[in-house]
Design goal:
323 residues, alpha/beta, Rossmann fold, nine-stranded mixed sheet, three-stranded antiparallel sheet
């Protein structure tokens, strides 16, 4: 193991580790060491079509759960500098995000509508488009200034039948009541995994930051529920470690909306969280694949039929809609 960049673990990180790993002091220390040491995680490519016969990149051994259109690159490669990148042949994505997106596999292919409510810079939207081939995709980013990057990525990767919006989730819920086969909530969070990437985010471990984000996530989830059709799915994803923002919110959600059930994703079974009885999945930094992430997917099982429709979404940008 590489030497930790600090000689003593910060108290708030130790408290978080104790909350996550109970009495397992060895796992607590391993978690803290890997959060703090900052390692260069290998980038991944989501190929938008066939790989070129002469692949210019060296790739790592495939993980059992890794989709066949994703490559994890060896270190010291710069895929953003290749002409293939500008041509939209692939989208560069961190491997933790690939892991999180794998829950989309339980959704039947070619859904009528997928809504990504917190979409920028676009990775989850691109992944859902590549995996599921939805007939229509709405990529929403409430922070207007972040839509430029979102639009650029969707356009470069030639994601079709997509509308970019910049609405609060409450407004989006009014526009798309009971309409979506899949709603993706890649929720704003305390971002604790950013420290493993070298970002200075020590405030992310403060209880008031965690509680603030937990409550903000609940509001977004409460709005997202209104967009899901009967039999449809909702993916809840974060890039943080705190149980309150992950398993805690999943348990709150199921208690608040009992018509939803959390689904098992067999491909991710070895990553199933031990912090709740509900099926959900964690990638930990000590596993060496990425800085970490949390992911889950739920299905709406209410027998009451919902006939939803899209009511004039206010587009910031829209690609050609295939008829």
């Amino acid at each position: 193991m590489q030497k930790c960049r600090v000689t003593e673990h910060p108290p708030k990180l130790l408290k978080l580790a104790a909350d996550l790993f109970a009495d397992d002091e060895g796992e607590q220390r391993l978690f803290c060491d890997n959060v703090l040491k900052v390692q260069p995680y290998r980038p991944a490519l989501v190929w938008m079509g066939e790989r070129p016969a002469d692949n210019p990149f060296g790739v790592e051994e495939r993980q059992s759960w890794q989709p066949d259109f994703v490559d994890r690159l060896k270190r010291d490669q710069r895929p953003g500098q290749y002409p293939l990148h500008e041509q939209g042949s692939y989208y560069c994505m961190n491997f933790s995000s690939v892991f999180e997106s794998c829950v989309f596999r339980v959704v039947p292919e070619e859904p009528e509508l997928v809504i990504d409510v917190c979409a920028s810079p676009g990775g989850k939207s691109v992944f859902a488009s590549r995996l599921l081939h939805p007939k229509r995709l709405i990529s929403n980013e409430v922070i207007r200034k972040r839509t430029a990057q979102l639009i650029a990525n969707l356009r470069r990767c030639d994601v079709g039948s997509v509308t970019v919006t910049s609405d609060d989730t409450a407004v989006l819920a009014d526009q798309c009541p009971g309409a979506a086969d899949l709603v993706i909530v890649d929720a704003p969070c305390s971002g604790q995994s950013m420290i493993a990437k070298g970002k200075h985010v020590t405030a992310a471990f403060h209880s008031h930051v965690i509680n603030h984000n937990r409550n903000r996530q609940r509001r977004i989830l409460g709005n997202a529920v209104k967009m899901v059709k009967q039999g449809g799915h909702l993916a809840y994803i974060t890039c943080t470690y705190a149980r309150k923002e992950n398993e805690g919110n999943l348990e709150w959600f199921i208690d608040r909306f009992p018509e939803f059930e959390a689904l098992v994703v067999p491909e991710l079974d070895e990553f199933r969280s031990s912090l709740t009885e509900q099926p959900c999945y964690r990638l930990w930094p000590q596993q060496g694949l990425g800085a970490g992430g949390f992911t889950s997917i739920l299905r709406k099982t209410d027998r009451m039929e919902t006939k939803g429709s899209i009511v004039n979404p206010r587009a910031v940008w829209q690609s050609t809609i295939e008829q």
